[in-house]
Amino acid sequence: MKTEQGIKIQLKQTFPLTIKRLGINGEGVGYFKKQVVFVPGALPGEEVVVEATKINPKFAEAKIKKIRVKSPHRVQPPCPFYDQCGGCQLQHLQYGQQLKEKRDIIIQSLERHTKLKVDNLDIRQTIGMENPWGYRNKSSFQVAQKNGKVLAGLYGMNSHQLIDIEHCAVQHSQTNEAVTTVKTILEDLQIPIYNEKTRKGIVRTIVARVGVETGELQVVLITAQKELPKKESIIGEIQQRLPKVKSIVQNINGEKTSLIFGEETLALAGEEFIQETLGDLQFELSARTFFQLNPIQTVKLYDEVKKAADLTGKEKVLDAYCGVGTIGLWLADQAAEVRGMDVIPESIDDAKKNAKRHGFTNTKYVPGKAEEVLPKWVKKGWKPDVIVVDPPRTGLDNQLLQTILQVKPEKLIYVSCNPSTLAKDIQTLSSKYDVKYIQPVDMFPHTAHVECISQLILKKGN
């Protein structure tokens, strides 16, 4: 007799499934004979018939064959490339419901990775956008050539087919216009387009970035070599057809790599950077500067950090992954001192410039890892009252977690872009910290990305 546990799903097997929740990548999650099944495109509450496409020892993946009972929140995705592109995962889910599901993803992660009583936690409603379309201020579209026509877009899901995207629904209208125009110019001037297989040709990628508040536009051509044929004609055409372009830049990347930018950047025309405004702060964005992709929501995110920090003007604040200084500068007018560090030296140079430009004299920025720099400062008698962390998707470095537990600031503000690593880090910190509340903010509507701010307070007696 086969036991219930012994029955394994077979490849290509079709079976009915009820979708219980959304997974971390925006896929539907159901259980068939106690086995977890992930179904892209399926929504919580739906009853579907699926076909198994991949079998792993711990789970199966499947595709929808038929929807028997449809979610009341299912909508028609407005983007014609949605099914092929993979850049968005949730356009088929009504926006208000996306916000609820994103909060639920955080709850699931806390239930899975922490021993906390999640029901007792203050997990707030997700802060969304009034208009959740056209929000991305930067696009990086690969280019290719097919029958003499220049294509620009993204590679399809799990394929090496470039999808020619005429209009991306989540990109700012100016970046869409810039890419389409530059694509036409390259075609008109018959500029050789890079071919990944033969590794011949010149232009690999078109990057366009707009200052959402300033309207300034930057176009970056990423080329496989330094020589750019008909360079003056390309510049002239871009300037004529896109009068808002403030900065035209060339970046050289001859490597066989999935990284977009190479090391060498040349200014071709106009300024080397464009200006962007966030609240009262101005920033200069050069081609390779990291900057938040959704400035409208970034202001909301940073305002929530400010609320959580709740400064009185007396606190020493540490911005542990400071980048170009954005979060620290947002808090600097209410802090006694802000110090920050980052592993990228160029970001530290930018942070210093940004602080100086805004007239802040209570800031200090150094290159290095927080877990190495902070203990040295503490030894010299500088101990932060508030630490703000905004780590990459991998979460906090273990050494930094241990450093925080030793230094014991009164307050820790954790800005997270990955609920799983946030939950694991909270579990480690829970020996000395209480989670006061978690505030999700939707930085990337229609995708499975979830950002949130957690306020952690040192437990009494520590």
Automatic annotation (TrEMBL):
Residues noted as binding S-adenosyl-L-methionine in the record, renumbered to the chain: Q292, Y321, D342, D390
Keywords: 4Fe-4S, Iron, Iron-sulfur, Metal-binding, Methyltransferase, S-adenosyl-L-methionine, Transferase
Any one GO molecular-function label of the UniProt entry: 4 iron, 4 sulfur cluster binding
InterPro entries: MeTrfase_TrmA_AS (IPR030390), MeTrfase_TrmA_CS (IPR030391), NA-bd_OB-fold (IPR012340), SAM-dependent_MTases_sf (IPR029063), TRAM_dom (IPR002792), U5_MeTrfase_fam (IPR010280)
Active site: C417
Keyword Lipid biosynthesis in record: no
Keyword Cell division in annotation: no
PROSITE patterns (alphabetical): SAM_MT_RNA_M5U (PS51687), TRAM (PS50926), TRMA_1 (PS01230), TRMA_2 (PS01231)
Listed SUPFAM superfamilies: Nucleic acid-binding proteins, S-adenosyl-L-methionine-dependent methyltransferases
NCBIfam families listed in its UniProt record: rumA
Protein name in the entry: 23S rRNA m(5)U-1939 methyltransferase
Native species: Neobacillus bataviensis
